[in-house]
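Researcher: Here's the sequence for the chain we discussed earlier.
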Amino acid sequence: MQASGLGSDVQRMTRLLLSLRELDLRVNWLRDHLARWPAQTSAARLDLLCAQSECSDHSARQVMLAVACYFIAWGESELVRQLRNIAEERHLLSLGRLLSWQSPGRSQSSAPAVHEVPDYGAGRELTVGERRSLARRPCRGKLERLLADPHPLVLREVLHNPHLVESDVVRLAARRPAQSVAMEALAHSTHWLCRSRVRLAIVQNPGAPARVAVPLLAVCNRAELVQVVSNPNVRGLVRSLARELLARRPPLARADLADRLLQ
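Model: Thanks. This is the structure I predict for it:
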């Protein structure tokens, strides 16, 4: 694929994504089109888009959240494995950074921690259905316990509760030790991944799965990347990638202008 043709294709893709107002629509558009395009074509287009975003191109940075959410949701798919292999073989460094959460040869088979169901004051353990029903109610008094619930269906339900506020979700994302089901629920909640404070709390949590934290780095602005790099509690892979992304940013005056436009 010639460079000029590739640039036009990426420009067209960016315009189409920006024409969709909702993040979910953008993610679904990516899912549909990446499934149709040849993997080599998808890899080349995504690599150029990532490179443009790393250089603080305003339009590219606007659509990177959708790209990050796509990889968070389908990061274990066969297509994503193909894209990672193509990035390695063709030295597509920007796409490679976005997909660098995999640790070849390392086992991920450790058993997840078991968390107790919170006491909801009913004198017995509520069923999953009862807890999901409770999660839909406009009752702030129960939200803290619901956010500590170990069942993914309950957590996904409470994340849609209109009485939940950003500070509640930031505390959930920053909780240590990280609760794997909470991180998975957050990873599938595009409503909350739109919030920069929630994303940053996930990225800086050393217990957050790398396949969630690493793609979200691509959405961080300069100040957030500096914060990640300077936090000794952040996992090594994430800090290392944050340093690389900082090094790719253009001179400060231009980058600051682009970051302000995105805030």
